Amino acid sequence: MLTRLQSLFNPLRIKIPFLLDVVIVSDPDQIKQIEASGCVERLHAYDSRSLPWWVRLYFRATKFYDDSRELWFLPFESASDPSYPPRRSYLEKRVATGYTEEDVKSIADLLRSDASDQALAHEMVQVVNRRFFVQDIPLHITKAAKGTLQSVREAVFPWKYVRARACIRQVMDYCEQTLPQGVHLLDSGHNIGEVVQATAKGLRSLKDNLQDPVEEVFTAHPPTPQSTRIVTKPTRFDGLLLLPTSVGQTVVLYNIGKAATKTHDLHFTFGAGGPERLCVFKDFFLAFTHDLQRELSETKPGAPDLAS
Ligand code: HEM
Question: Which CATH number fits domain 12-296: 1.10.630.10, 3.40.50.300, 3.40.710.10, 3.40.190.10?
């Protein structure tokens, strides 16, 4: 009886007719099963205007969607979209230009001196984004990038929502004025916010767990908590749901962060549990944090703090 009751909430379906239909999945095997089912797709597989109202409302205040230019960040595009391969390949090439020993040292210095979150994020933004913008990102833009929404819960506070909309506009206008012609504005613009909101936090987790391998640190403290899909076929996902999904309306929310913590599998830190479409930044991030860990570990206890 208890097992049957638990299975009713696992995955959890929240369905309010004509308003909302969401399936929240935290179990790692269920995430993999749904991802492999052939019944879900990336949100922008559908035209933005036909997506559920709350999806448009929420995402237009995040770093993932610019509704005025009608641009979505790459993970939201179907792999069958003709723009997908060249966009992925452009990002891969830019990320492959790597980082320098100086980059590692400057972040290590900030961590050692317990610099503010803002100073740390701003410096890391330069390390990641110089390759896209060919110039340093100004402080007011990294500050703005922090203000976009990071969870649906935040969207219910009108002042946060209005501020988030202003922030995404500010970041995207900067991208338009600064990026070289032909570069996808949101694929690059997103990366400022991603570093400010997720990567910088990850660096602190690393410092607090210097003795653990980076793979362990970033599965125990995954920077990305969730990813979303939209349903493309009516299905009960082989009995996981009581009622079938609605095409183009049911949204699946994978709790990949929880799955990473449970499985210690980096495929959940940087993807949806499998090797397909993993984060373009994964290898850079792991190599960088590995070097950073070495640099931080080499600091002799009691050595003078040069950064302060
Ligand atoms: C530590 C920080 C980061 C984490 C934990 C992270 C995590 C993720 C995750 C979980 C996905 C899969 C999303 C999904 O399946 O819906 C993803 C996709 C992606 N990420 Fe990251 N990300 C990080 C930083 C970045 C940065 C800085 C960049 C750009 C330089 C980036 C570029 C991408 C791209 C382009 C994809 C889409 C890959 C594809 O669909 O082919 N990520 N990331």
Answer: 1.10.630.10
Residue 35 CA, ligand 1 centroid: distance in Å:
17
Minimum CA distance residue for ligand 1 atom 37? 75
First to last CA, the chain: 61
CA–CA separation, 143 vs 38, rounded Å? 40
Task: Give the length of the chain.
Answer: 308
pLDDT, tens digit, 9 for 90 and up, residues 64-89:
999 999 999 999 999 999 999 999 99
Spatial separation of the C-alpha atoms in residues 245 and 94, rounded to whole Å: 39
Q: What is the pTM of this model?
A: 0.93
Alpha carbon of 116 to ligand 1 centroid (Å): 25
Q: How many CA atoms lie within 13 A of 117 on its CB side?
A: 12
Q: How far is CA 17 from CA 21, 22, 232, 246, in A?
A: 8, 11, 18, 11
Residues in the ligand 1 pocket, defined by CB under 6 Å: 74-75, 88, 91, 95, 128, 191, 194-195, 198-199, 202, 223-224, 227, 256, 269-272, 277, 279-281, 285
